[in-house]
Structure formats: C-alpha cells, structure tokens
Amino acid sequence: MTVQHLVVSETVSRVLLVEDDDEIAAMVVEMLTENGLQAVAVGSAAGMDAILRKQSFDLVVLDAMLPGEDGFSICRRLRASSTIPIVMLTALGDEINRIVGIELGADDYITKPFHPRELMARIKGLLRRASYGVEHRPQQTAMQFAGWQIDPILRQLVSPEGIHVSMTTAEFDILLAFCRNPGRVMTREQLLRLTHAGLAGPVERSIDVHVSRVRQKIEPNVREPTFIKTVRLGGYMFTPKVEAC
C-alpha cells in the first residue's frame, strides 16, 4: 500500500505515515494534504525502509500494531540513527504503552480513535519546533557546558569526545531550555511551555521521562545526577556553567 500526494515545493514539509489500515491511511493523507503538507503512506516497516532509501521526510506518523516489525521496534530503530520527529498513532492507549513509546524515542503518542484536528495540531506543533525560524529564536549562539556543545540552529549535541549524540525533538528542547536557564529552578509547567514536551501524556510524567532520557545521555553518573538536579516540590535545576562557544 502506498498512498501519496506530491506538491512541487521545496518549502512544504513532508510526512511519512506508516499505517496498515487503508481507510485510516487514506483519511490521514487527505487531511495532511488539505493542510498544505506532502504525505506518503506505507503499510509496513519494509515499505518504510524502501521509501526512506529514496526520499527524505520531516516527520513520521507511526502505527504501533503493524504486520511484521511492530511500531515500537521501528521507533527504536529510527531514533538510533535520526532525530526526525515521530508521532505514534495507535489503539494501545494505556499508560504503560504511552511511556514505553516515549522512552523509545517518540515525540508524541496519540490513541485511536482520534480527532483529525488534534492529530493535525500536534503534527504542526512538532514541525514548527523542528524548523523554528532563526529570526524567532532566543540566544542562537552555540553553547558549551562541562565539555559538551549544543547548537540551537543546527540542533546538534556534541559530547566532550566529539561524538554527535542522537536526541528526540523533546529531549533537545528540554536540554536547550536548561542551557538557557542555568542555575534556575524550572518547574515542570515551565518546561512544558518552553518545549511542548508534555503532548504525549500527563504533564508531570511526560516531562520526567524526557528529563530522565536527557540525564542518561549527558550525566557522568546517571544514578547520582549532578548536571540536572531534582528540586523537591520545585522541579529541576541545571547546575553546570554555560558559556557561548
């Protein structure tokens, strides 16, 4: 199954939908194209891999229950090599599956049945944050802390060893918010407003999961974090000294 609508424009965002239900796929593709996006739908991991070898996309909408390789496995695999925003769209709506989806690297998690306008709003939100115009961004110079370098424009995180570290959109936005506010206690609600990282579930749980994943990637000792301190009844504080590169 391949459903696609191509618009000849270099500025139009391109969305890949991995969904084996033809009716849902057709509906989502139509909705996306009506909202000015390019959309391609495939029905399996194999179909996704084949089209990704030929084309690039700005966002992936991924069903969890697919024939062959399931969506959770696909999400893990995509995140290992790419920072592309991922929205999981699935009938598995319980809290555990939501958290698993986020932990594997999904940026958002929407359950079926879903309202088309909600899905469209979340897709546009992720695309907007991923391509936020330079002229509208605060503090655009690259920054460094404890040997790490973070570049708001290129959206890259580089370790002290010079290794580019893969991050989800939400993880990068949270770390960037910390770097722009070092030494300041930031509540979960503030992080939510700055990063929109709570779209995939309850605000506190979603923020905590993303912060935990950021810690796993930057902390010298994850069991005793020193970079991102938890402030009781407050939120979090980023402790390293942050300087412009």
UniProtKB/TrEMBL annotation:
InterPro entries attached to this UniProt entry: CheY-like_superfamily (IPR011006), OmpR/PhoB-type_DNA-bd (IPR001867), Sig_transdc_resp-reg_C-effctor (IPR016032), Sig_transdc_resp-reg_receiver (IPR001789), WalR-like (IPR039420), WH-like_DNA-bd_sf (IPR036388)
Domain of life from the UniProt record: Bacteria
4-aspartylphosphate found at: D63
Keywords: DNA-binding, Phosphoprotein, Transcription, Transcription regulation, Two-component regulatory system
Location of the OmpR/PhoB-type domain: 140-240
Residue span, Response regulatory domain: 14-127
Entry keyword annotation includes Nucleus: no
DNA-binding region listed in the record: 140-240
PANTHER family, alphabetized: DNA-BINDING DUAL TRANSCRIPTIONAL REGULATOR OMPR (PTHR48111:SF4), REGULATOR OF RPOS (PTHR48111)
Protein name: Response regulator
Source organism of this protein record: Rhizobium puerariae
